[in-house]
Structure formats: C-alpha cells, structure tokens
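Posting for a labmate who doesn't have an account.
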Amino acid sequence: MKRICDFISGNMALIVLAAAVAALIFPAPLASVEMKTINPLLGVIMFGMGLTLKTDDFRTVLSRPKDILIGCVAQFLIMPGIAWLLAKALALPQEAALGIILVGCCPGGTASNVITYLAKGDIALSVGMTATSTLLAPLLTPLLVWLLAGTFVEIDITGIFLSIVYIVITPIIAGIIIQKRAPIFTRRVTAYLPAFSSLTIAFVVAIIVSHTSGKLLTSGVSILVAVVLHNLSGLILGYTAARLMGLPHSKRTAISIEVGMQNSGLASSLAATHFAAHPLAAVPGAIFSVWHNISGAIAAKYFSKKK
C-alpha cells in the first residue's frame, strides 16, 4: 500500500492531467455531479493539512518574521498584479479574467511544500509561508478580488470571506485539534495523505472540466497561455524579489515556489460558489491545478542543481 501511495503522490501531475483530459473527452459521467461538491472535497484536503501542521511550524513564523513577511508580501502583490495585467494584455473574456484573478488572489498551495523539499529549498520557510498566507486569505483574498475584478462583476466580499473560513480555516483547525487529541491516529494516516490529496485534487479538476468542457474547447488556448505565463511569472518574480532582499538561495527557492504555486482548487471552488452565472471562471483554477504541478517539478530539478 505504501508503494502505491508513493507512486500516486510522486506522479500527481500526470494523474491530474489524465483526469482533466478524460473529463474533457468524456464529460458526461461527471457532469451530473454538482459543482458545489468540490467544497467539501477541498475541506477534506485542508483537514489533512491541519493534521500535518506542527507547533514548530508556527514557531517558524514567529522566529523568522522577516522571511515570512517578504514571502507573503510577494505572494499577495505579485500574483494578483500579474493576473490583472495578463487579463488586460491578453484581452481575456470577463469570465476568464475573473478566474485568473481568483487564482492570483488565493494563498499558496499545499503542494508547494513537497516541491520545495524536492528543490532542496528552505522547507520550514515554505511551510510557514503556506500556513501564514492561508490564515491571511479570508481577509486578503476577497479584498483583492473586489479591488481587481469589482469593476466588471459584482463581488460578495462577505460571502467569499465566509466560504474561505468554511472551506479552509475550519478544516485546518479541526485537523490540528485531532492531531493533538489523537496522535496515534494521526501518525497512521499522515503517510497516506499525499496520495489521498492527489486523488482528491484530480477528482476536483475532473468535475470542473466536465462542467465547462464546451467553453474550454473554444476558449482553452487563451486561458492556457494566461495560466502558464501567470505561473512562470510568479516563480521568476518570487525568486527575484527574495534575491533583491538579500536572502540566500534556499530561501529564494522556497519563496519562488510558494509565490508561483497557488491554491487553485480554492479559486475554482470560489468561482463555482459565488460566480455560478460565469461557469468559465472556474476553468483557470482547474488548468492551474494541472500546470503548476508540472512546472513545479521542472523548477524543483532546476533549483536543486543551482548553487
């Protein structure tokens, strides 16, 4: 079983890509699954994140506030700003522009910690950034979406805030509590969490693609270009920002990966929950979920060899 789980987590990008392609070619099987189903699925992933967070992770935030501050400022300035610029430069349809902006305004993704490990980056900083940006998301994500997309679509700031609390914060807190109350159970399940999260993300992506397959086929190229440029800009500018602040390579690597890899599943969930009238808004998050795992693996190989 452990080998199977290692294979699944080690080939997450390919599994997610296969799920997306299958849903695009054969959308009918999952078209009957409601989009709101992805909310509890993401909640389960966040619960797993809570199970893996340790007291030392929060001590990291307190012991190195400068590094965390640099990373989080880069996270919430670079990705939202690049998303807005790409939407304008590529003249994306409003639905797609909203989706890219949602991705840009979300916190870092949990897969970034694994990629940072493979890249031989500062893992403690990566975990600390993920935890901090996730805790800041209920306040910053709805505010940034309102600032950048409020001119062409109505933004329910309170609703987005509550959704992030329900989908992200509450499950994480529950996971931390279970970890403290049931340490034996936690130790038994944590070995399987990466594989379970990988399959869950693949299922979420397949649901989104199956519901938007028609529009994806007509507008997919422009969205794909935007997603690739968005992700690569985050990786490059995140590294550059950390370098300008005088941080060493291991910390630059962690910040680069944290900035470039977003919680794109949350972006798709928010799109499906609050912008159901704009179904294409959920597509950038789905594509990002596939692409950033591929680019992350490539970046990990590059950073691990760079001194």
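Reply:
Got it, the structure tokens are right above this. The chain has a mean pLDDT of 88.
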